[in-house]
Design brief:
mainly alpha, 0% strand, globular, disordered C terminus
Length: 231
């Protein structure tokens, strides 16, 4: 039991290290700006898209998504032979660590992005197309119809957690290869990951309720900062 607790901690810490790779900040520096001083002040793909354009937005998304995919893949490769019935749980812990590192990077005053791109990497790392494809479709539809990336992100988090919970609780074919003793814990940890992302959107939720949230494609003044934004 003590060894398994240590594995959980190591996966969290390892994920955190990967999460410290702040793609938006790096891309911004390549363009000779600090992305945190422009647009919403958020070090994430959406702000990079608004401030630096589509290519930068895509580069930031891919960087933040892939850092989580790579971290989770390493965890899967290390533990799939050692602890096959616990591997998925450790992958989820790793994903949580990546998101925490992305949202709270110590060298940036614990002010990073909101973690949605990194969480999409965690969703991919579940290796379940029953979750990946519907989440992708719903996210695109919500953003396309509402033009609110924040709303699409919140819906994505809730959908991902609900679908995983249902599938892992009813897994007669043992698709996840997860021991029954770890099922509830995996749901809780994945729920914490989703809750963290939603919490980081609390300012966006307030603006959505007031009808003040910026829509996709809406331009902002370069020096404008959202007063209630915490990133």
């Amino acid at each position: 039991m003590a060894v398994q607790i240590l594995y959980r901690i190591l996966c969290l810490l390892g994920g955190y290290v990967f999460g410290l790779f702040q793609t938006a900040y790096i891309i911004g520096k390549i363009h000779h700006i600090d992305i945190r001083e422009y647009g919403s002040g958020n070090s994430g793909a959406t702000n990079a898209l608004r401030v630096l354009g589509k290519r930068a937005g895509l580069e930031v998304y891919l960087g933040d998504c892939l850092k989580c995919v790579i971290a989770c893949l390493i965890t899967r490769l290390i533990f799939r032979q050692i602890l096959p019935d616990m591997t998925l749980l450790l992958v989820i812990y790793t994903g949580l660590g990546v998101v925490i590192g992305h949202v709270f990077p110590f060298y940036m005053g614990f002010k990073g992005g909101k973690g949605i791109s990194a969480i999409s990497g965690a969703v991919i790392s579940l290796l379940d197309l029953r979750i990946i494809l519907p989440c992708l479709v719903v996210f695109i539809l919500v953003v396309a119809i509402s033009r609110y990336v924040s709303l699409g992100s919140i819906v994505l988090m809730l959908q991902m957690w609900i679908m995983y919970s249902v599938f892992v609780l009813y897994d007669p074919e043992h698709i996840y290869h997860l021991g029954q003793q770890y099922v509830a814990e995996s749901i809780i940890v994945l729920g914490c990951l989703a809750a963290l992302a939603i919490y980081k959107h609390k300012a966006n939720i307030g603006r959505l309720l007031r009808g003040e949230e910026s829509r996709l494609g809406q331009k902002k003044k370069e020096t404008e900062r959202e007063e209630t934004h915490e990133n």
